[in-house]
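Customer ticket, subject: "Can you confirm the structure for Small ribosomal subunit biogenesis GTPase RsgA?"

Message body: Hello, I'm evaluating your service for our small team and ran a test protein. I'd like someone to confirm that this is what the system normally returns, since I don't have a reference to compare against.
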Amino acid sequence: MTGRIIKGIGGFYYIKVEDRIIECKARGKFRHNSMKPMVGDYVEISLDKDKGVIEKILDRNSELIRPTVSNVTQAYVVFAIKNPDINYDLLNRFLVLCENSNIHAIVCLNKIDLCTEEEKLEVKRKINDIGYEVLFINAKTGEGIETLFNRLENQTTVLCGPSGVGKSTLINMLTGKDHMETGKVSDKIGRGKHTTRHSELIEIKNGYLVDTPGFSTIDINFIDKDQLKYCFPEFNDYNGKCKFNGCNHYKEPGCAVKEAVEQGKINSNRYDFYIKTLEEIINRRKNKW
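Agent reply: Thanks for trying us out. I re-ran your input and got the following:
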């Protein structure tokens, strides 16, 4: 019997199989193999008196480490256009992570009531120039939400972005209910409700929306230094055209990417971010040894 993990809490996994959800535990062999089931996994399960056991994890098409979720096809990278201002360094980290995970990224900018039309156009141009679509939304009024909702069809979509940009409100708008705990402090557990504490898949529009814990920093230094250049779409026209095979667009002479930066064809701030990240990866590897 094959299904998909939609939630995992305390060693139990909740598997969607056709029109029902089955509570399962994983076989011990997964612990021994250092392979743990993830939300989003397609799995084969066996049943014993309505209790399920995960027997096999099927191959993953994509895998995110943080949030821990697999088989995502699309990411809404949510930032506020103002309050707080866009942290482009952090935005770049999310975009690189999506590229490395083979996930199609769409940048969604919330709180558009706080900026002028000119500011919107300038930000849109900046992000379009590096190869990403921008959608403007106002999660409080619902402006732009219908477009996001329609783009969920037949996709497994993850919402990611820093804290304080309206992700919780946006998920509520997309699902049409107070799915996430926002607002008042929970009397039962005695803590604020602005944080989602586990990842789960919400079935919507013939697909799934991944409800993920909010976080504001993201590590991409695990990416191989020779693979990092492929996480920058604007480099695609120049990869393979440098003087040396395997050029990482760093200190090598005759680099087509560096030439494109000098000619203004590639955003210099993005290139600087690439170099900074590449150096972090190289230094981390040195420190390991």
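A couple of notes from the result: The longest strand covers residues 2-9. Residues 41 and 193 are 27 Å apart (CA to CA). Feel free to reply with more questions.
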